[in-house]
Amino acid sequence: MTRVNPKLIIHGGASSLEDKGGLESVRDSLRGIVKNIYSLLDNGASAVEAVTKGCMLLEDEPRFNAGTGSVVQSDGQVRMSAALMDGRHQRLSGVINVSRVQNPISLAQFLQSQEDRILSEIGAADLSRELQIPLYDPLTDYRIQEWMEERKTNFNRKMARLFADSSAQRGTIGVVALDQQGDIAAGTSTGGKGLERIGRVSDSAMPAGNYANPWAGVSCTGVGEDIIDECLAAKVVIRVTDGFSLAAAVEKSMHESQTNGRDLGMISLDRQGNIVWGKTAEILLAAYHDGQGIGDTLEWHGENAGLIGHVAVG
Ligand code: GLY
To answer: Where does substrate bind (predicted)?
Structure first.
């Protein structure tokens, strides 16, 4: 079988650069992870392996809202969600609102081979205990401070109603890869949108937020409810399956999102190796390897940015 030139795109959410250490710092972080994961793909790692490892590295990076550094919910607790989709077998697995683990994506990876593939809170905690995964506190000082600040200004309103407000965070991490066999996988992980109501379910462990099949793969970021209402990841992948080019599928989906007033972003690639990203949010923190070199989307914002960007196969 002919060796496919691997492709990779990752994201660290659609929220501001400032609270993450600024442009150069975020760029170094994202590009470092792209370099690391692309070398795995270049050495024959499968898309599922590369996506899992890439998500773990992003979860371990405290500046992003997933794993270590996850935002705090309305009751002061961290609950995380993650999903992995093996495009070759068109199989999704994931965990919803899991606590006290370092890498929610590793639970999603384990669940790929199980009959019951998406577990929430108590089920995910039981699995973690069964697998003897050490307890881990993902809460960082920065996130505690952030929560304390919110608490000072309108703690009563938020805690009484247990709703997040318009300052909802758009942090998530995600990875989409095409491996040497031509297989695609997508992974997404999040701490949620911050200050949300207890029990709120993120898009990240649903096909709306993370989807792949043999034709294309997508990972989303942004306000989960907006992503769910657009059914964004699955919609883009199905459009490609039905004959749209990836760029046309993302462009149409981004126009719909904009018309509907959504606040979101996404990364994607297809089996030909085209890489496409899109956003209605102000900024998308993404980086990619197109088989020739590394690029990123960190300066893709402002008036002339448009709704999509892409690296087409030559
Ligand atoms: N997209 C992450 C969330 O809304 O939870």
So the answer is: 200-203, 221-224
